[in-house]
Write a structure and sequence with these properties.
Helix content is about 50%, strand content about 15%. The chain has about 250 residues and is an alpha/beta fold. It is globular, with a radius of gyration of 17 Å. It has a single domain, classed as 2-enoyl-CoA Hydratase, Chain A, domain 1 (Alpha-Beta Complex), CATH 3.90.226. It has eleven helices and nine strands. α4 crosses α5.
């Protein structure tokens, strides 16, 4: 439990529910990001699975982003690049998955958590699911998740999130910009709506869903290389004097 977990269950034979959890506000260290990527790829390859639900454990935080402990420990560009490629792997796994992925966002999403919400095909949330891209606060930027977020909400809204890094935007703002399709009053209502959508999709033609998925993600075939470049950029910036100074302040706090 102290290291968190990735768990795949099947509420019905055709629905795979992938849950990630970490006790530090569902932040995701490298090993969990690798396991999450693998879980998505496994469900993508499972012939019995038609629809995937991606969710996190706990109540009020969907995902606090990457592991801060690992971020502080980065001391060379190669380690930095590997660290930031963790979310790149998850985003690309969602992008390449031939099956529809539904996101269930029960609480706040920060940094990479916003990237995951943007990488699914249909995202439902609660009224507690505010969002923030906080990367600029430590001297880097949302470079790796940027293509997924910008694709979903547009360049203007992405720049607002990236630059106003101290401010949470409301779930209603996120819905108006297209990140969330629905915002519900409670986790219970969210679960009901998520399962209703999954069951509806299971009743439709899986071949049509696969073709729709291809259309949704047209123009992103270059993302393997693009996100790797962005990870290298972030891995270099995190070694800057500015960022090291800020991280040391957090470490001593």
């Amino acid at each position: 439990m102290t290291e968190g977990y990735i768990k795949t269950t099947h509420p019905t034979p055709a629905i795979a529910e992938i849950t990630f959890f970490h006790p530090k506000h569902n932040s995701l260290p490298g090993h969990l990001l690798a396991e999450l990527k693998a879980a998505i790829e496994t469900s993508a390859a499972d012939e019995a699975t038609q629809v995937i639900i991606l969710k996190s454990g706990g109540d009020r935080t969907f995902c606090a982003g990457a592991s801060f402990d690992e971020l502080i420990a980065i001391n060379d560009p190669a380690t930095g690049k590997k660290f930031f490629q963790g979310f790149a792997g998850v985003i690309n796994a969602c992008r390449k998955c031939p099956k529809i992925i539904i996101g269930r966002v029960q609480g706040k999403a920060v940094g990479g958590g916003v990237g995951i919400a943007a990488a699914v095909d249909y995202c439902l949330a609660t009224k507690y699911a505010s969002i923030k891209l906080s990367e600029l606060n430590i001297g880097i930027g949302p470079f790796v998740i940027g293509p997924a977020v910008e694709r979903k909400i547009g360049g203007s809204a992405f720049s607002q999130l990236a630059l106003n890094a101290n401010v949470f935007q409301s779930p209603e703002w996120a819905k108006n910009k297209g990140l969330y399709a629905e915002v519900h009053e409670s986790a219970e209502a969210l679960d009901q709506a998520t399962m209703a959508l999954a069951e509806y999709l299971v009743s439709t033609n899986p071949e049509a869903q696969r073709e729709l998925k291809k259309i949704f993600w047209e123009g992103t075939d270059h993302w393997d290389a693009l996100l790797e470049e962005r990870a290298a950029m972030s891995g270099q910036l995190v070694l800057s004097d500015y960022t090291k100074s800020v991280l040391n302040q957090y470490k001593q706090a």
